[in-house]
Amino acid sequence: MANRTLIGDFGSGDYRLRVSKPGFDVTAALDRERLAFDSSWPDAAVVYKTGIINVTSSPVTVPFGETLPTVPFCVVFRVIDANNYMMGQTFNQGPNSFNWMAECTTTYLRFFEFHGGGGYLGGYVILRGPL
């Protein structure tokens, strides 16, 4: 089984987080196609968009205004009150049994609500990069 995760000194004081794709040793000299993530990438984990929106109907779409080269990493949360948030997940599978969820594509982030929850504040942080 290949070493897939490296957190620390990659050599000569070059500290980073690096994750290889399955079957590839993360300590080897790998090109970008064989890596899932490398914190040395200049566009890794760059914040692309953030916001909080009122989801009063379903769905509510946050358009990007452009087509991104890959689906970005989207962190979504539900605002409970000023001090409490509920984390959620995004996926491209369509609705399921969650009371709320979000879908992230190359062109938009879309919030959904199910089971007549009466609306909520949805927050998001979208990272532009090869995650």
Task: For this entry, give a set of tags.
131 residues; mainly beta; Immunoglobulin-like; 2 domains
Describe this structure in words.
There is one protein chain. By secondary structure, the chain is mainly β. It has two domains: 5-38, no CATH class; 46-128, Immunoglobulins (Immunoglobulin-like, Sandwich), CATH 2.60.40.10. It has strands spanning 5-9, 15-20, 35-38, 46-55, 60-63, 73-81, 84-88, 100-104, 108-113, 120-128. Strand 8 and strand 9 (108-113) form a beta hairpin. Mean pLDDT is 78; it is low at 89-93.
Short description:
The chain is mostly beta strands and about 130 residues long. It contains no helices and 10 strands.
Q: Could you say how many structural domains there are in total?
A: 2
Side-by-side strand order of the widest sheet:
4-10-6-7
The separation of the N and C termini measures 22 Å
Shape descriptor reads: elongated
Question: Low-confidence stretches at least 5 residues in length (pLDDT < 50)?
Answer: 89-93
CATH fold label of the largest domain: Immunoglobulin-like
Helix vs. strand class: mainly beta
What CATH first level of the largest domain would be assigned? Mainly Beta
| Main β sheet profile | 4 strands, antiparallel
The CATH homologous superfamily of the largest domain corresponds to: Immunoglobulins
Which radius of gyration do the C-alpha atoms yield?
A: 18 Å
- Total strand segments: 10
Mean pLDDT: 78
Element-by-element helix/strand order: EEEEEEEEEE
CATH architecture of the largest domain: Sandwich
